[in-house]
Design goal:
- This protein has 351 residues and is an alpha/beta fold.
- The N terminus is likely disordered.
- It has 7 helices and 12 strands.
- The strands form 3 sheets. It has a 6-stranded mixed sheet.
- It starts with 6 loop residues before the first helix and ends in a 33-residue tail after the last helix.
- Helix content is 28%, strand content 19%.
């Protein structure tokens, strides 16, 4: 099961172990990296050889011929066993307990690598460059064709290595490597409507809208012609109208109403004046006077128009029918306030 081919004399380490996942020894933190756990006998053999550091190995599945490269994390595995990350076993098509070959290698420092996300979910990461840099700190080498795992925000993203320079496998320890990305494998380009095709559609829509507006205008005109004129609306609600009262009991002084009430009163007076002017003009044509039919002779009714009232008064005076002056109002004695607050005798609690 285990063989070492001239490692002590030729400086090359080769061995075969049974592969198991890292979950068997409770090393879940090493799942997101490329480092394996070898038995202590491997460390004894490697210490006796003049090998280059860092220790890098080529891992081969002899039954399928698939291979990859990895580093070593610890030498605490059971003798004859090797523990690998899940993604590495999936790339090598290994099952639990299947034999796998190890050999130490020296890889060139990488200068360029092209990566491709397997799914487009990787594009949803706000800063994929920082996430990838943090993930690659746990890796010591990359091999073309491998598909490693990036763990971010409780989710795993698979990244495939498309190409490397200067070789098919490179070391990424203490090197300045240029990284390039390809579009994800399931990525689909968004479809856009060409502007040339959109213009006729817009023109057709505009023509249809104009025809519809014209038809609607014609229908609206006929409907407006057929509709009867609406009746004049009644007086609207006027706020803050009413009598005021004082807290001291004195009668409130008369004041003019609010502007809205004044405006309403002015509008009503203007309508009454217009109606009175029309009636007086018709009455004067027939030889009538400014006195309305329902008023007593000698009584003057104001029309709301001062000029018309003055002319009507002059006419009445010329005819000797001047209206009697209004009776003088009786002056009422000034009554004292009915309520006088804070008046009375004070009393002390001491008696």
């Amino acid at each position: 099961m285990f063989h070492f081919l001239g490692g002590q004399y030729h400086g090359r380490f080769e061995a075969t172990y049974r592969a198991f996942p890292l979950a068997f020894i409770d090393k879940q933190s090493a799942e997101y990296g490329d480092k394996v756990i070898l038995p202590p006998s491997a460390l004894d053999r490697l210490a006796s050889l003049h090998i280059e550091y860092p220790m890098l190995f080529k891992v081969v599945n002899n039954s399928t011929g698939r291979s990859t490269h990895c580093g070593v994390l610890e030498f605490v595995a059971q003798e004859g066993h090797v523990y690998l990350p899940r993604w590495m076993m999936a790339n090598l098509l290994l099952t639990e307990g299947q034999p796998v070959s190890f050999a130490n290698v020296s890889l060139p420092k990488g200068t360029y690598v092209k990566l491709q996300p397997v799914t487009s979910d990787f594009l949803d990461i706000s800063n994929p460059k920082a996430v990838l840099e943090r993930t690659l700190r746990s890796y010591s080498c990359l091999t073309v064709g491998d598909c490693f795992v990036v763990h971010y925000n409780n989710k795993d993203y698979e990244i495939e290595v498309r190409s490397c320079k200067p070789g098919e496998a490179i070391s990424i320890i203490e090197t300045d490597c240029q990284v390039d990305f390809e579009a994800p494998k399931d990525y689909k380009e968004p479809t856009y409507t060409p502007a040339a095709a959109a213009a006729p559609l817009a023109a057709a829509a505009g023509a249809g809208a104009s025809n519809g507006a014209a038809a609607a205008g014609a229908a609206g005109g006929s409907a407006a012609a057929a509709a009867e004129p609406e009746e004049e609306e009644g007086p609207k609600f006027v706020p803050f109208v009413g009598t005021g009262r004082r807290l001291d009991g004195k009668p409130a002084s008369s004041s003019s109403g609010p502007p809205a009430a004044s405006a309403a009163a002015a509008a009503a007076a203007a309508r009454a004046a217009a109606a009175a002017g029309a009636g007086s003009s018709s009455g004067s044509g027939g030889g009538g006077s400014a006195v309305t039919g329902g008023a007593k002779p000698g009584t003057f009714v104001s029309s709301g128009n001062r000029l018309a009232d003055k002319l009507a008064l002059d006419k009445l005076k010329a005819q000797g029918k001047a209206p009697a002056p209004p009776p003088a109002e009786e002056e009422k004695p000034d009554e004292g306030p009915a309520f006088k607050p804070f008046e009375g005798k004070g009393r002390s609690l001491k008696g």
